[in-house]
Amino acid sequence: MISLFEPGKGLSFAEVRELQEPSYFRDLNMDQYASFFKEFEVGAELIPYFYYLPKTKEESGHRQSVMKDLCDHDVRAAVNRFISGIGVAERYLGYSEIVNASVQKWKWRLDTIVQFYSAIDRFCRDLTENPPKSEPLLKLRDDFTAYLNDAETVKTRAKAEEISGEFDKMRFHITINKERATLDFQYSEEDYCSSIRSEFPRAEGEREENSFTESPFGDINIAPLEEFILNQFMKQDRVLFRNLETFCGIKRDIILPEVSDLIREFRFALLNLEHFEKLKNNGFPFSFPEIVEDREVNLDDCFDIVLAAKNLSENKEVVLNDIMKSKEETAILVTGPNQGGKTTLARAFGQCAYFGMMGFPVPAGVSRLPFVDRIFTQFASTAGNDVEGRLEHELTGVKAILDSLTDHSLVIFNELFTSAPTMDALTMSRALLSTLIEKNAVCFVVTHTFELAFDSDRFVSLVATVVEDGSFRRTYRIIRKSADGIAYANSIVSKYKLDYSHIFGRIRAR
Amino acid sequence: MKVNLLNCADYVNSDVLPFKNDVFEDLRFEPILNTMAKNDKFVYQACKNIILAPSEDRKNILHRQDAIKEAVAQKKYIFQLYITISEIFTDLTILKNRTKKEGNPLPSVRVMNSLETLDLLSTGLEKLKAVIVDANNQFEPGIFRSFFEQFLKEYDSDFMLLVHEKCQTLRTLQIGGEIQISGRVGRGLKSDGLLVNSISEVKSKRKFERLNAILNAKIRKNEIRINYEDLQLSRDCRDLESTGLLHVAACFEDFNKEISRLFESLRTQIAFFYGCCNLHTHMTGMTFGLCFPEIAEKSHAIETDRMYDLSLAIETLRAPQNNSLRGSDTLLYIITGVNHGGKTSFLRAAAVAQIMAQAGMFVPARGMKTGIFRGIFTHFGRNEDATLNSGRLEEELSRLSRMIDVMKPGSLLFLNESFATTSENEGAAIADDIIRALNDNKVTVFFVTHIYAYAKRAYREHYENTQFLQTERNERNERTYRIISGEPSETGYGMEMYSKIICGIQ
User: Contact B178/B201 with Cβ under 8 angstroms?
Assistant: First the structure.
C-alpha cells in the first residue's frame, strides 16, 4: 500500500534485507560511509537500503522530491514526530509481549492501538497543516487519511479510545508514615513542590514537571503496590476490565507491517540527510543535482564524503574539485602524479552519481548529473601476487562489466592495467574506451597512460597538480588541463579563494 | 535575580573576536592580565573572557564605561565584595568535593546534603548583604547603587526568615513525617503522574489516637489500609516515600542553583571590576595616561592622542613612546620603516586600545575617539618558526582565508609582516589584491610591511583613504620609536643589519 520512495511499488523490508552489497560499493568507499549507520541503535538493519539503486529517472526524481521535502523544517518535524510516535507504539507492543500479568498484557495492547492510530492521525494533520510538495508524501498522507476514515478503522479506534478513556480516569491517593500507609481515591491536584517554588525564586527558564520524573516502580511489570491499587479499581468496575479482555484478550496485528517498513525508509533517509547536514554545517557544500537525460556533467566543489568526515574529525582540510563535461564530450580522463588525489576524485565522482540517483543531495556545491541506472567500477587490483594474475583478475572484471552494460551506465576505471607493459596498457585502454563510448556509457577513467588524453578532443582531461617549487608537493587539486604557467603563489591564492573577486563576494555576503 | 552590572548576555554572544587565541598571543595580553589579576587565577580568567569578548553595541559599551568609572571611584568596596564572594566559594567548593566523594548516596543523605548547601548559601547571602548595606551608603546613584538596592529588596529580612523556616520543616521531616501522594493509572496500568500533595509532621501519638476515634467511621469507609506486614508492599511504600522526598528536595536544589548562579555571575563580574581597579591603580601610579574613549555612533575613524603599548609600558616600567593617530576617512594604514623601530608596538597599541574600548574599558592613551568595529582580527607573520619552506605562505594564506570566512563589512584587520614569505613582487601583488578587496568592503586595515614595492605603488598611485606612516628618526638618524606620517622610503634595513652584524657598526 505505502512506500516512501516509490508509491505502490517499493520493496518491503523483507525484500530489501535480501539485497547484496553491489560491487562498486567498496571501490567508492561507500561501505565505510554506510558503516556510520551502525552507530545508531536501529541503524545497522537499514544498511541494505543502500544497495538498491533506482531503475528509472522518474524513480530517482520521486526520491529527490521526497528528500527535498524532508529538508523542509516543518515536514522534517512532522516526520520525526511520526517516527517517534510509531516508535512508542512499537515499544508498547513489545511490552505487551514480555509482561507477566495478563491484564497488563491487554492494557499494553490497548495502549498500542490508541498510540498507533493517534501517531498516524497526528502525521496526517501535520502534513495537512504544512503540506509537503512531493507526490509520494502527498499520496502517503492521502492513503493514511483514507485508512483512518475506513469504517473498520473508525470502529476499532473508537472502541479502543472509549476503554482507554475509562482507564485514564483512574486516580488514587496514598498516605505514608512510619506506622501505616493507606490508600483512598481522594486524588488531589495540590502540589507541595509548586508551593515551595512559589515561595522561592527559581533559576529562570527551567520549568520542570512537578510530578515525579523518576518513578519508584521503574520495571514495566506492575509492582506489588500497583497491583494492590489495581485490585481496588477492579472491585469497583469489573465490567471495564471484562471489556478490556474482550477487546484485547486475543493477540492481533496492530501495527501494520507496511508502516514499520515505512518508518525504516524514513529513518534511512533522515540518517543520511542529518549526516550531510553535519558536514554542511562545517562548510562542506551539498546540493540537489539536476538530473539530465544527456550526458552532461557539472560538479562544482565536489569531494569524497568519507574523506571529508574523516578529515573533519582530525581537523584536516579537504580540497574541493570541479568536474565538468559537456554533453558532446565522451569521457573524463584523469592523469597526473601518484598520490595526487586522483582516486579520491574518482570516488567523489562516483559518490555524487550514486547519491544523486538515490535522490539525496550530492557532496558538491552545484551539480548536474546524467541519469544512470547502473554504476560499475573497476579499481586497480591488488588481488593475486603475480603480475599476470592481477591483469587477469582486472580483465575478468572488465569483461563482466561490458557484459552487463545498460543504456545508462556509469563506468569508473581507476588505474587499470598497471601491471601490463605501457604500450599494451595503452592499446587495451583505447580499445576499452571506444567500446564504452559506443555503448553510450558515462566514462570516468583515471589512468597513468597520459597519451590516452590526446586521443580525442572530445575527452575531458583533468590533471592532478603539484606545487611548482621543485618539491612536487601535492595540492590534491585537480584541474582541467590548460597551459601550466601558473605560479605557485597564485595557485595557493586561488586555492584559498583569496583573489579580489572571491574576497569581495565572501565578505559582501554577510 | 540577574546581575547586570556588565550586560553579560552581550559578552557571552560576542563574535567581534572570532580568533581569540591569535589575538591574545599577537597583542601580548598576558602582562596586562597579570597586572589586573594580581595572582588571582579567577580574576585572570574572568578578565580575559570579558576583554576578549568586546561588544558591538554602543549603549552597552557606554553602560560599562559608567560602571567601571563607578567602580574605580570606590575601589575599597569592590575589593571587599570580591573577597566576600571568594570566601563563599571556598566553602562551597569544600562541600562540593565532600559530596562528590560520597558517590551516589542514599535518598536521606542526598536530602541532608541539599540542606547543608542551603545553609551555606543563606549564610553567604547574609554576609554579602552586610557588605552591600555598607557599600550602598558610599556609592553615588548609578549602576552599582541600583543593583545594591534591587539586591536588598529581593533578599530582605522576610525572605531570609522564610529560608530559615523551610530548612527547619525539612529537618523535622527527616526525623519522621507524613507524606501524601496522588497519582493515576497510566499506560500499561503502571502508575503515572505521581504528585506530592503535602508533607507534614505526625501529630503526637495521643492526639492522633483521639483524632482517629472521632473520625473512625469515616476513615474506615474511605480508606484502605496497606498492610506493612506484606514485605513487598511495605518495600514499595518505602520506595515511594523516598522518591517523593527526593523530589521535594530537588525543589530546594532549584533554589540552591539560583543562588549559586547569582554568586557565580556576581563573582565573575566583580572580578572584572576588581581587575580594572588593579590596572587603573597600577597605571595611574606610574602616571601614564588612561582615558575613557569617546565612542562615535557611525564613523569608523580612529583618533588617538598619545597612545602607547600597554604591555610594553607594564613590562619596561617606562613611559613608552606616545603615538597619535588621525584617521577621519582612513581605511588603510600602511606602516613602513626600520626594524625594531616601533612598528609592531604601534600596531599592538592601536589594536589593544580598540579592543579595550569595545570592552567598555579605559584605554592606554591621553585621549581617544573611535567607532565600533564588527570584527577585530590580527594576522601576524609567524616569523619565529624560521624554517623557510613553501608551506609558510600557504599557512599564512589559509589562516587569512579562515578569517575572511567570518569577516563582516566594517571589520578591522591588523596585518603584521604578512605575505613576506614569497618574493617581493608576488607578495606585493597578493597584498594589493587582498587589501583592495577588504577596503572595498569597508574593512579597515593596518598593514605593517617591508614589501616596499607595495607601499611605493600605493603611495605613487594615491590610493584612496590611505595613510602612510613610518618609523621616525631623529637628526642623528637614530630611531625614536615614534611613528609619524610620511612617504614610504626604502629604508635599507637590510643594509643596516648587514652593517651592524657584519661590520659591527651601531
Answer: yes
A182 to chain B: which residues are within 8 Å by CB? 219, 223-226
Cell numbers describing residue B452:
616596499
Dihedral of alpha carbons B93, B94, B97, B100, sign: negative
End-to-end CA distance of chain A: 48
Beta bridge mates, A370: A292
The answer to whether A225 contacts B237, with C-beta atoms less than 8 Å apart, is yes
C-alpha to C-alpha distance for B341 and A436, rounded to whole angstroms = 69
Chain B nearest CA to A441, separation (Å): 40
Query: For residue A470, what pLDDT band results from cuts at 50, 70 and 90?
Result: very low
* CA B267 and chain centroid, separation: 11
Tell which of A178, A196, A475 to mutate to test the B interface (max B CBs under 10 Å).
A196
Predicted pLDDT at A201:
57
Delimit the domains of chain B by residue range: 8-171+255-285, 180-240, 294-503
Report domain B294-503's class. Answer: alpha beta
ipTM of predicted complex: 0.75
DSSP state of A288: P
Residue A472 scores a pLDDT above 60? no
Beta-ladder partners of A369: A291
**Residue A12 one-letter amino acid:** S
**Model confidence band, residue B4 (pLDDT cutoffs 50, 70, 90):** confident
Pairwise CA distance, residues B99 & B88, whole Å = 17
- Asked if the model's pLDDT at residue A421 lies above 80, the reply is no
> Directed axis angle between helix B231-285 and helix B58-73, to 10°?
80
Instruction: State whether residue B190 is helix, strand or coil.
Output: coil
Residue A434 C-alpha cell reads as: 571506444
Query: Measuring CA to CA, which residue among A401, A390, A476 is closest to residue A433?
Result: A401
Three-point CA angle B230, B236, B239, nearest 5°: 140
The pLDDT value recorded for residue A291 is: 95
Q: What pLDDT, on the 0 to 100 scale, is given for residue A385?
A: 55
pLDDT at A483 over 60: no
Q: Give the closest of B193, B232, B423 to A224, CB-based.
A: B232
Backbone angles phi, psi at B479, to 5 degrees: -75, 140
Q: Give the number of other CB atoms < 10 A from CB of residue B232.
A: 12
What does the mean pLDDT of chain A come to? 86
Are A263 and A86 in contact by the 8 Å Cβ rule? The answer is: yes
Q: How far is B485 from chain A (nearest CA, A)?
A: 28
- Homologous superfamily (CATH) for A283-508: P-loop containing nucleotide triphosphate hydrolases (3.40.50.300)
Domains of chain A, by residue range, sit at 13-168+255-265, 283-508
Q: What does the DSSP 8-state code read for residue A451?
A: G
* B61 or A385: which leads in pLDDT: B61
pLDDT, average across residues B314-340: 80
Task: For Cα atoms B235, B239, B241, give the angle at the middle one, nearest 5 degrees.
Answer: 115
Which range is most confident: A251-260, A329-338, B49-58?
B49-58
